[in-house]
Amino acid sequence: MNRAAQRAGLLTALVLFGAGSLLSWFTHGTGTVKDDPKRGISIPKQLTVPFQVQAAYNDTDIVFRYRWPAEKPSIFHDVVVFEGGKWVRKGKGNPGPEKDGMHEDRVAMMLDDGSVPEFARYGGYMTIGSDIASFTKHATDKEVMAHPYLGKQLKQEEVSKSMPETRTDQNHWSSVQTADVLKAQRKAGYFLDLWHWRAHRSNPINMSDDQLIAEARLSDTGKSASAGNWDAEKNQPKWMFNAAKTGYKALNWADVKAGRISQDST
Fold it and tell me: What is the 3-state secondary structure (H, E, C) of 220-262?
């Protein structure tokens, strides 16, 4: 290669490098994830929380203890308040903080017996499939309920967590394996146990959800610990407090919202 060709090649490289640098400068940060509630995206101000885990076990039982600081513990998930002559629900799932603080603290853990080798590497991330509920793009409840297996048979209303190999196409939530394949996977131990403690819906009755992740997020056999206190026909709560025993028929909404009700309260 002669000297003129070398100079031309060097000049071309410099021009390409400069153009690339300018493009990078003008587009820098445009791919950054930002708060966008309309797309189901919310970034908390506090990104990490100090978290302590202790475990003890013997030949039959294993016990876990979790501890984390909470400036204002959230021990309610939702409540109904009598306002303007009618009952109004406070608290609902939404991206970011719930405006009335009605979103209970909770901790969930997944574990397996070693039958899911990918779990040691990917952890809970491996259960997040396509179109899962709360994602920017997610399957609608009508689509899920119309699915012959997930909706019609399992009575699912949204795409929940699932194991990747329970789908023939991991990029599409509806491509569930055949019943024979799912049965063989379950027999081989291809599922995760999911233990879920909730400050409102389980702690008061000293229980935690015992669920599992397979082709969907499913519950073990038995009756659910969760139940509602709403009478849809009468548009009012089914039960109130016994004032003869507690001194009141209902909690004070101002106390609930301000965090003055503790786990030890009635």
Answer: CCCCCCCCCCEECCCCEECCCCCHHHHCCCCCCHHHHHHCCCC
- How far lies 234's CA from each of 86, 103, 249, in Å? 11, 26, 18
| Residue 126 near residue 118 (C-beta atoms within 8 A) | yes
d(CA 193, CA 207): 16
Q: Terminus-to-terminus CA distance in the chain, angstroms?
A: 88
183, 193, 211 from 130: Cα distances, Å: 22, 21, 21
Q: 255: which 2 tokens?
A: 């106390």
Span 194-209, pLDDT tens digits? 999 999 888 888 888 8
d(C-alpha 20, C-alpha 18), whole Å: 5
Q: Give the tokens for residue 73.
A: 């513990």
Instruction: Tell me the per-residue pLDDT of 20-51, one tens digit each, with 9 for 90 and over.
Output: 666 666 666 566 778 888 888 888 888 899 99
Alpha helices in the chain, H assignment, sequence order: 3-27, 119-122, 141-146, 179-187, 243-246, 253-258
pTM of the model: 0.79
Instruction: Indicate the pairing of strand 79-83 with strand 52-57.
Output: unpaired
3-state secondary structure of 166: helix
* Residue 140, number of CB atoms within 10 A of its CB: 12
Which of 160, 215, 159, 222 lies closest to 190 in space, CA to CA?
A: 215
